[in-house]
């Protein structure tokens, strides 16, 4: 049988491969969560809040989650497929002419590496990229198209945008508009079928993905499942240890990163006893320790109470203003767009608007039409405008009040 035919018979479909990557990601997150719950229950047991039986339940859940993660890493559909493809690939003599086979090997190699990389992708960014900055544009997305499977509709369709170095960009859109898909592509969990992502002028490919990721720090939605260490200090240290940072330098890096988010007095605290906002601050400190240029906040405020939500938004602004970081915030929270330099509006997989917040907010009917809520502040500005009171766009209520009281 020729190798192409053999390959076609053995190939994972796009859908199977994408499902595998997503499942792997989700099992990994579950494992972290269960691990944290177990840590927390140990402390609660010491404090006499729960009994041994309860503690054992948490332990069992954590063991189960670890086993599930291991299971998916070694899942038959994946390993068998990978081995078969490799065997066919290795036995074929006309490697150069067999482009499909070459692509298949790459694709499967990539998926295989994911299990190694996932630990890193959560904690381990910005470790001094080896790729050179070739451009002032931090992130450029060109004609990006992505489908979860060939017969599915496009989850992303001809998406184009640029994010300049030092810019704060909010990506908004109703459920199903493509925000999560875009974020998964930016952090390299999924790869687009068409189009490119460039980071500082480097087109991201499978070969340089790991290096390109070093420019990125990521803060996820759920503050609880981003911890690995048993104290704030250990947690921030985790990524540094992985990068084999000289232990002599670590103390200072940990302290400085914690200080940037106002957590320097919490270094010996157990992360799970912190508030949601504080946990997210530690997650930001862990990312900052590796000095990434770009920070992606993936719905990072959505599980926080109003205080935590405010804290994190303020930190995002500070990171841009004081540390000149590029901020990409993928969010449901329309209020957040007021802080941004640029807003990207997604709808049904397409980028439907891009511009400064005041430009995007001009067309309120359009935003309402794609089921987006207008920020309260803009409604106030609109009402004032109708009364003939002209004011500049404000980022928050304090600014608005100041303008009115001038
Ligand atoms: N794993 C998947 N398999 C198949 N289709 C998917 C998968 N994940 C998302 N989709 C589809 O892709 C499209 C974009 O979804 P996506 O999750 O990126 O949107 P979103 O804007 O992040 O939505 P939400 O705010 O609800 O998270 C939707 O039509 C969705 O149904």
UniProtKB/TrEMBL annotation:
Taxonomic lineage from the root: Bacteria, Bacillati, Mycoplasmatota, Mollicutes, Entomoplasmatales
Pfam families: ABC_tran (PF00005)
UniProtKB keywords: ATP-binding, Cell membrane, Membrane, Nucleotide-binding, Translocase, Transport
Domain ABC transporter as annotated: residue spans: 139-373
Main location: membrane
Alphabetical list of Gene3D superfamilies matching this protein: P-loop containing nucleotide triphosphate hydrolases
Transmembrane regions: none
InterPro entries: AAA+_ATPase, ABC_transporter-like_ATP-bd, ABC_transporter-like_CS, ABC_transpr_CbiO/EcfA_su, ECF_ABC_transporter_ATP-bd, EcfA_1, P-loop_NTPase
GO molecular function: ATP binding; ATP hydrolysis activity; ATPase-coupled transmembrane transporter activity
Name of protein: Energy-coupling factor transporter ATPase
Listed SUPFAM superfamilies: P-loop containing nucleoside triphosphate hydrolases
């Amino acid at each position: 049988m020729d190798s192409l035919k053999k390959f076609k018979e053995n190939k994972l479909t796009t859908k199977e491969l994408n499902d595998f990557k997503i499942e792997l990601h989700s099992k990994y997150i579950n494992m972290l969560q269960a691990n944290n719950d177990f840590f927390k229950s140990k402390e609660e047991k010491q404090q006499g809040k729960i009994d041994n039986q309860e503690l054992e339940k948490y332990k069992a859940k954590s063991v189960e989650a670890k086993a599930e993660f291991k299971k998916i890493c070694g899942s038959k559909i994946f390993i068998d497929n990978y081995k078969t493809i490799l065997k066919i690939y290795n036995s074929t003599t006309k490697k150069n002419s067999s482009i499909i086979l070459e692509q298949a090997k790459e694709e499967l190699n990539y998926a295989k590496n994911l299990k190694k990389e996932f630990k890193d992708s959560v904690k381990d960014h910005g470790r001094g990229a080896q790729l050179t900055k070739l451009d002032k544009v931090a992130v450029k997305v060109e004609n990006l198209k992505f489908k979860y499977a060939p017969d599915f509709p496009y989850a992303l369709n001809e998406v184009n945008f640029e994010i300049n170095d030092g810019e704060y960009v909010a990506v908004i859109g109703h459920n199903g508009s493509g925000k999560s898909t875009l974020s998964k592509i930016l952090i390299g969990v999924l790869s687009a079928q068409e189009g490119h992502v460039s980071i500082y002028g480097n087109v991201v490919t499978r070969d340089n993905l790991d290096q390109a990721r070093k420019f990125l720090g990521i803060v996820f939605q759920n503050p609880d499942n981003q911890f690995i260490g048993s104290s704030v200090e250990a947690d921030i240290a985790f990524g540094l240890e992985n990068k084999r940072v000289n232990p002599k330098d670590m103390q200072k890096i940990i302290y400085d990163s914690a200080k940037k988010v106002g957590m320097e007095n919490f270094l010996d605290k157990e992360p799970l006893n912190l508030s949601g906002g504080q946990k997210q601050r530690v997650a930001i400190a862990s990312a900052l320790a590796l000095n990434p240029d770009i920070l992606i906040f993936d719905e990072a405020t959505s599980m926080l109470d109003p205080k935590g939500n405010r804290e994190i938004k303020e930190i995002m602004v500070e990171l841009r203003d004081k540390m000149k970081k590029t901020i990409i915030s993928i969010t449901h929270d329309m209020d957040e767009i007021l802080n941004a330099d640029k807003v990207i509006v997604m709808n049904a997989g397409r980028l439907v608007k891009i511009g400064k917040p005041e430009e995007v907010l001009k067309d309120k009917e359009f935003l309402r039409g794609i089921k987006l809520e207008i920020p309260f502040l803009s409604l106030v500005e609109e009402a004032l405008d109708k009364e003939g009171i002209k004011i500049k766009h404000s980022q928050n209520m304090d600014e608005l009040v100041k303008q009115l009281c001038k």
